[in-house]
Amino acid sequence: MTTASEALSAAWRDHWARLLAALVGRYRRPDLAEDALADAYAAAARVWPVEGVPANPAGWLRTAAGRRVLDRLRAEAVASRKEPLMVVEERRRPGPPLPGDEPDDGAHVADERLRLVFACCHPALSPEARAALTLRFVAGLGVPHIARLFLVPEATMAARVTRAKKRLAASGIPFAIPPRGRLDERLDMVATVLYLAFTAGYAPGTGPDLVRVALAGEAIRLVRLLDELLPGRPVVRALLALVVLQHSRRDARTRPDGALVLLPDQDRSSWHEDEIAVGLAVLADVPDDVSGLARDYLLQARVAAEHARAGDAAETDWTAIAVHYAALDAHTRSPVVRLARAVAVAEAEGPQAGLALLDGLDGLLPHSHRLPATRAELLLRAGRGDEALTAFDDAIARCANGAELTHLHRRRLAVADQQRTAG
Amino acid sequence: MRFVLLLHEDEQVWARAGATERADHVRRHDAFSEAVRARGELVGGEALSAVAAATTVRRDAESTTVTEGPYAETVEQLGGFYVVDLPDLDAVLEAVALLPPYSVEVRPVVDLDDR
């Protein structure tokens, strides 16, 4: 790794959120600010390796991004003059701001990234727009990556991000932190996008690295901050338990060459015991009767806890896990949950019972490689090897993650050999 | 920033309302106006007569058709509008919360100055 790329990732980690917040505050155009800052980082990636890292990287980035915002504002001013003139009466300039108009400085939310998350979670944005904006603004994720997380084609997600940014500017939605007394109104939305960011770091659907520990760790840090800011909220407590338990397995999930290691094959001695203890303790305090999103996270955390408690794969209490997934399936009606439930049921009751739960999912998950991959494994265990090969081919055709693709090819090859030997 | 607020409600609600309810509506509209003036400007606004009085004119290149009734037949009808000048959408939403329970469509006005 060169000095320039180290400096660039340090600049991303340390300055992205603060620079974005400063640009938004100055120009009141979050859409332009985000584009401009992304451009500035791209320029840094080109210039720094050649000309050297500037003495003040944050200042360099701020200047470059500020210049880009001004260029765009100028271009817009020119473009608007060319539009056919509409009859618009001369607009009076607003007078000096009244006491109520002073923008909330958001000092009650100290962390820059958490402030951006709250700002992205305005209720006048659609849930998809909030999540897409947060992943773009706070985590700096690219559109292909976000699209994979939402199980939609890239073009759809690109249009959605563009629309969300335009809507921020066009609808008069203030890009600001709500006052302290009204933070709770956005709690579910904030929890949802933090979990998505965590998921993005944990198992990205595209790109060479399966586990982006840094992003997942950053998401956990933000959940902890949220828990301190608004203590005792069930949705935050349940989410904290869930992400801590899942993250405790990070070192066991990939081989040194980046290949995926499935849960049964993981080296459990590399699970972080201390973190598991923390996760289980947090989970134990979440009340049983929570509803809504808190219930969603609670049930998922209970599944994670069952895995964490098992000393080895054979000890896993699949019956308990299948029960948690059945409750989660009834609660969410999500096809992704149904898929996970099918795996648990196959473990507890056999492959036929699992396969039966996959019926009807194809139309709901048309882009996911996990559905055919799961079906392939269950078909194989049901002794239907030829059908399993076809399902592996489907999965390979849909998979865009390098590590998972390697795994699928390896599995298909092994099964094909097995079939030949048997035949 | 200027916004047009399109107030929709089932016309029958107003038609059936008694004197007390009507007075309450008026009070709420006054509270709304006051809230808007505290943070910006109430540029204008009108209550509209019932859709039974509406006339819809449809034009294309060749012809003009005039029909009796509103542009679209729906349960909730456009019953009035406001034009307000407020700092942002949140200020609008806070003021709208003071109005009687309408469905309100909030639309920013195209402002060539600000583009």
From TrEMBL, chain A:
Keywords: Sigma factor, Transcription, Transcription regulation. GO terms for biological process: DNA-templated transcription initiation. The keyword Transcription applies. Coiled coil: none annotated. Transmembrane segments: none annotated. Residues 118-168 form the RNA polymerase sigma factor 70 region 4 type domain. One of its GO terms (molecular function) is sigma factor activity. Residues 186-284 form the DUF6596 domain. The keyword Transcription applies. Belongs to the sigma-70 factor family. ECF subfamily. This is RNA polymerase subunit sigma-24. It comes from Cellulosimicrobium arenosum.
UniProtKB/TrEMBL annotation, chain B:
It comes from the Bacteria. SUPFAM superfamilies: Dimeric alpha+beta barrel. InterPro entries: Dimeric_a/b-barrel, YCII. Residues 1-111 form the YCII-related domain. Belongs to the YciI family. This is YCII-related domain-containing protein.
